[in-house]
Automatic annotation (TrEMBL):
It is found in: Cytoplasm, Cytoskeleton, Microtubule organizing center. The gene is NCAS0G02430. This is Spindle pole body component. GO terms for cellular component: gamma-tubulin small complex; inner plaque of spindle pole body; microtubule; outer plaque of spindle pole body; spindle pole. InterPro entries: GCP, GCP_C, GCP_C_sf, GCP_N. GO terms for molecular function: gamma-tubulin binding; microtubule minus-end binding.
Length: 847
């Protein structure tokens, strides 16, 4: 037998009953440790017992009990083996059996004393009959500790002194006589379930008081039942707070639906109370179980009512519709269907009339109220975060574009008749779809409406507002696609370009521009079917560059574009980046240098022709002729660099990106291929057709032509670009041009490896050097003209000074050429070390 098991009954019998169970267990542990210790002593034993003696009053009975325990345990301090100690305690334990003498020598019988020993104290079967009773057992350890004691009466079942006629009910009823009956609890619980306080269950907000004279089992059941009352109280408070507040229609509908559900719950409780079918708290809980779950779900949804918008509720309910719990799914479906009709009203108003009114920020499209009319944009915004879960991003964008395009057609294109017909047609269709809810038919209708409004817009832009022709015109006007316009304009306005900025008059620039248009290759834009709609937007103006500038520095071409084209073509939009202006000013540097190169070349050719006539017999004329010829070679090299850079920018940057833009705009046009002895109509010189990368997006129609060859017509199935995509495609074109490494100054990706400067900065430095070379070269031509005049007049008086000036200008010109040559060498090394193939090719071209 274990030492603790042998010691425990002894302590139960000898320790005074007034000692608490906790202290008794503590005493058992300390004595067990002492008896197991090899260093145990009587002094140590007396010390332990004294600690627990002090916990009880010093009475004759208590002192006698402690003395008996000490007399019993003192001999054990001399025993070394635990087995001997256990046997000793076992022997003493057997003495506690009936008929054996007690430790104090008196012959007593052990008798079982049941709960009737103290009728006023609550009965607890886990407490030993020999111990003081407590209201509750302190832990399940009591069952093990007292199991032997509880079994002692059954050992002596033949003992006739034990009363076996007392029933368990008779033993327990006396402890429950002060407890509240369940029928009384049921009567008062009905009030609590509808959040009404009562005498038995006083109720405050989120607090219900349960009386102390209710058994633990009933109290636990009431905790479960009263959860419905607390949930009802919280939900009813939310309804009362917001039923008259200024909230969105969707949230108002949610409050109304919740109010109806709470009224149903109240009616259910009333009917349950009147029926008198409830006999116990368990039966009440079974009846309430589903309502408790439903109220939990509503409380979960309504817990953050103020911080949750109507569209968030709609998305949340849509997600919970597919919940695995059928009850959750049913409640979420009811709420979703309740709110969906209001959201459909927002949706259909936008689709047929582009109206977003009284949505309280519950819709994913927002109209800007304080819109600046100077900024040419349609003041509507798609908020992708507010898209409900039943609409994916693509469908939400189509809905947004439909309404936005409707605004574009009515407000900016003034197509009221077409727009009204379009709106009436789809208003009827959507009104018939209201009862279907979220369905494929709804999405198919939105797709059909989207395709139709894009077709209307595309036809209108191209036929009435000449959209595609405008793109070509912008490239020809502002991006120098037709370079002869700039050359003619420069000749016409050279006096203005050479004048100080403060003296330039705008009307004279406009007059020069009109003459240049009429004499250049863009004169075909005049008197066309568009009634000069395109050409009339072209304008010339000067920039505000400050004091000291000349016409060359401040001149620029501009284009005045009005809505609706200004909404899809960002030319110089208010608040925009004015990319066309930046690109034009960059190319204008090449045109400026080219003009002076051509002008000085003509002068040089004329001088060389005149000098060659008088060089015979005139060493001075021959010397100047030789030097000018050499300088002409240097000039041609710089001119060649200027022309190559201009050509590269026009053809490999602007034209390349413009072709990409064209391919986006023409993605719906048919491609025709003839199978037989002929090849593609688009490229009759190519014997082998290149594979089509977008073959998966094509539909194929086959037919026979007049020659019997099979014709396969491949039509791209992509839809037309909407107004946002048109605007983005054009902006992407401008951005791609401006972000080229040769044009983008503020970037870390185009820093030269050897120069340490960005490519545009290096290029600007070279262009400045080229212009200085032209200035010194022009001075050489001026001096040479004077020398030629002196030679023709046979006047040698000023030739010395002229020759000195010619020599000085020659040295400066050579110095600028050397500087250019070095700068070009470093620039080419930078380009050669770049990771782009096009720039490496450019470096070889420039060298």
């Amino acid at each position: 037998m274990d030492l603790d098991a042998a010691l425990s009954p002894v302590l139960e019998a000898l320790v005074p009953h007034a000692l608490s169970d906790v202290s008794l267990r503590s005493l058992l542990r300390e004595l067990s440790l002492l008896l197991r210790s090899p260093a145990k002593s009587s002094a140590h034993l007396q010390t332990i017992l004294q600690v627990y003696k002090d916990q009880l009053p010093s009475t004759i009975e208590n002192n006698a009990s402690w003395q008996k325990l000490e007399n019993l345990l003192l001999p054990l301090c001399s025993l070394k083996k635990n087995d001997d100690i256990t046997k000793y305690l076992s022997v003493f334990q057997s003495m506690l059996s009936p008929g054996l003498p007690s430790p104090d020598g008196r012959n007593q019988r052990y008798s079982y004393q049941g709960p009737n020993r103290n009728l006023n104290s609550p009965f607890n079967p886990t407490i030993s009959p020999n111990r003081a009773h407590s209201v509750y057992s302190e832990s399940f350890e009591n069952f093990d500790r007292y199991s032997d004691k509880r079994s002692l009466p059954s050992v002596y079942k033949d003992n006739r002194t034990i009363n076996n006629t007392i029933t368990l009910r008779e033993l327990s009823d006396q402890y429950y006589r002060n407890m509240v009956p369940q029928d009384v609890m049921l009567r008062y619980a009905a009030y609590t379930l509808v959040a009404t306080t009562s005498d038995m269950f006083p109720m405050d907000f989120n607090v219900i008081q349960i009386p102390s004279n209710i058994p633990n089992s009933d109290s636990a059941m009431l905790h479960l039942i009263f959860e419905a009352g607390l949930l009802y109280q919280s939900l009813n408070l939310i309804v009362n707070q917001h039923k008259s507040s200024n909230i969105s229609p969707i949230k108002k509908a949610l409050i109304i639906h919740l109010s109806k559900e709470l009224r149903k719950y109240t009616a259910f409780i009333n009917n349950l109370t009147i029926s008198n079918n409830l006999t116990s708290l368990k039966a009440l809980y079974i009846e309430l179980f589903e309502y408790v779950s439903v109220l939990r779900i509503y409380f979960q949804f309504m817990e953050h009512f103020e911080a949750t918008s109507g569209d968030m509720y709609l998305s949340e309910f849509h997600s919970w519709k597919s919940h695995g719990d059928l009850l959750v799914s049913r409640v979420a479906t009811e709420l979703f269907d309740c709110l969906l009709s209001l959201y459909f009203e927002y949706l259909f108003n936008w689709l047929v009339a582009a109206k977003v009114e009284s949505t309280f920020n519950d819709f994913f499209i927002k109209v800007q109220d304080n819109h600046d009319e100077k900024i040419n944009i349609i003041p509507v915004t798609l908020i992708s975060e507010k898209l409900p879960h039943f609409l994916d991003g693509e469908m939400g964008n189509k809905i947004y574009i439909i309404g936005k395009t409707y605004i574009f057609l009515t407000k900016y294109c003034k197509e009221l008749e077409k727009s009204n017909e379009f709106a009436k047609k789809y208003s009827v269709i959507y009104s018939n779809l209201l009862h279907n809810g979220i369905s494929n038919e709804l999405f198919n209708t939105i797709n059909q409406q989207y395709d139709e409004i894009l077709q209307i817009t595309h036809t209108l832009l191209c036929e009435k507002f000449h959209y595609k022709n405008m793109l070509y015109a912008l490239k020809d006007f502002l991006l120098m696609g037709k370079s002869d316009l700039i050359e003619i304009l420069t000749k016409k306005a050279i006096d203005l370009l050479m004048s100080p900025a403060t003296t330039i008059q705008g009307y004279r620039l406009t007059s020069s521009l009109q003459e240049a248009v009429q004499q250049s290759s863009i004169n075909h834009w005049i008197n066309q079917t568009d009634k000069n709609f395109i050409i009339n937007g072209l304008d010339a103006r000067v920039l505000d560059m400050g004091h000291g500038s000349v016409g060359w520095d401040i001149f620029t071409l501009d284009y005045n574009m009005e809505p609706p084209l200004s909404l899809v073509l960002n030319v110089n939009r208010e608040g925009g980046k004015k990319e066309y202006l930046r690109i034009f000013n960059f190319l204008w540097r090449f045109k400026k240098n080219a003009y002076f190169f051509n002008d000085e070349m003509l002068r040089s050719n004329e001088l060389l022709k005149m000098l060659s006539k008088i060089r015979v017999g005139n060493p001075l004329a021959k010397d100047i002729l030789t030097k000018l010829s050499k300088f002409c070679i240097l000039r041609s090299k710089l001119h060649q660099f200027n022309s190559m850079m201009e050509s590269y920018c026009l053809n490999f940057i602007i034209e390349k990106e413009f072709n990409t833009l064209e391919s986006k705009l023409n993605s719906t046009e048919n491609d025709i291929i003839l199978l037989g002895n002929k090849f593609s109509e688009s490229d009759t010189t190519t014997p082998i057709q290149k594979p089509m990368k977008d073959i998966l997006h094509l539909t194929v129609d086959s037919e026979r032509n007049n020659n019997g060859n099979q014709v396969i017509r491949r039509t791209n199935s992509k839809t037309l670009l909407n107004i946002d995509e048109l605007d983005n495609a054009h902006n992407t074109f401008l951005h791609s041009v401006r972000s080229h490494k040769l044009l983008l100054a503020n970037s870390d990706s185009n820093i030269g490896t050897y120069s340490g400067n960005p490519y545009p900065i290096s290029l600007m430095i070279i262009m400045e050097t080229v212009f200085k070379f032209i200035e010194f070269y022009s001075k050489l031509n001026d001096i040479s003209e004077k020398v030629l005049i002196q030679l023709n007049l046979a006047d040698t008086g000023n030739l010395g000074d002229l020759l000195t000036q010619f020599t000085s200008a020659s040295l400066s010109t050579v110095q600028e050429y050397k500087r250019f040559n070095h700068q070009l060498y470093v620039f080419c090394k930078d380009l050669k070390s770049d990771d782009e193939d096009d720039l490496r090719v450019l470096s070889r071209m420039l060298r």
